[in-house]
Design goal:
Keywords: Nucleus, Transcription, Transcription regulation. With 154 residues, the chain is mainly α. 36% of the residues lie in helices and 6% in strands. The chain has a domain of 72 residues: Histone, subunit A (Orthogonal Bundle), CATH 1.10.20.10.
């Protein structure tokens, strides 16, 4: 069996399996799963790049990935669509590379003060009324007009 350079290590697959509650399996199975995931991911990325090139664009969009997934009869991505550039920052340390999207810090005090929240009513009450009493409908404001055909059509 030829060795595939896997972007997923068997430790990554093992950690994902344990977080999903999958029972421990043999180490060889983790490597096979990592190779399979890497091959599928590589094929989807290549198809996505074909859609990007055929659209004469230089940036890969989530729509390209959705089309590549549909091409392979896979379910498309949900929840991420962006026409704008998504900036990622790069950090490295201890032999690991990490790309992340920076989150801006939010001062909760300023945020809460900027909200225009309506005042909560001081007194709350519940009022009930009968639609009909012993078969007759009382003429009160809450009940519909008995002369209106909309409510009493048979």
């Amino acid at each position: 069996m030829s060795e595939i350079n896997s972007s997923f290590s068997k430790q990554s697959v093992q950690a994902i399996a344990e977080s999903c509650g999958v029972m421990p399996i043999e180490d060889d199975c983790y490597q096979v799963i990592a190779d399979e995931v890497s091959a599928n991911l590589k094929a989807i990325i290549q198809d996505s790049m074909k859609f990007m090139r055929h659209s004469r664009r230089s940036k890969l969009t989530p729509d390209d990935i959705d089309l590549a997934l549909k091409l392979r009869n896979r379910e498309p991505l949900y929840g991420f669509t962006s026409r704008d550039f998504v900036p990622f920052r790069y950090a490295s340390g201890q032999g690991r590379r990490l790309h992340f999207q920076p989150d801006e810090e939010l001062n909760l005090t300023e945020f809460l003060e900027s909200l225009q929240v309506p005042q909560v009513p001081i007194d709350s009450y519940v009022r009930s009324h009968w639609l009909s009493v012993e078969g007759t409908q009382p003429l009160i404001q809450e009940n519909p007009d008995p002369g209106n055909d909309k409510y009493f059509k048979l």
